[in-house]
Design a protein that fits this description.
Number of helices: 0
Order of helices and strands: EEEEEEEEEEE
Strand content: over 45%
Shape: globular
Structural class: mainly beta
Amino acid sequence: LQLVESGGGLVQPGGSLRLSCATSGSTLEEYATGWHRQAPGKEREAVACISSSGRSTNYADSVRGRFTISRDNAKNTVYLQMNGLKPDDTAVYYCWSFTRGYVDWGQGTQVTVSS
């Protein structure tokens, strides 16, 4: 599966962004998907994930209640709605997909939270 993220940018603390992950090459409904992020000098960390059907989601403690992951299988797109952004959310955000033991990653999109 090929994945292309978009929607990153510069936002003030307390602001919102919606990231999109457009997929191609296969049927998205066969894949679990999610988002990781990597801040400068830090390891990549899990942010959120969603089951192939969309009925099950999970979030990192640091973003629970502020971020919402969703997917539209008909549009082959995964979303990450980010509200109440904090400077600590600054990172490159990566979309991923998983099925039958294989993981694919997108190229990432930069999110910067700063006043």
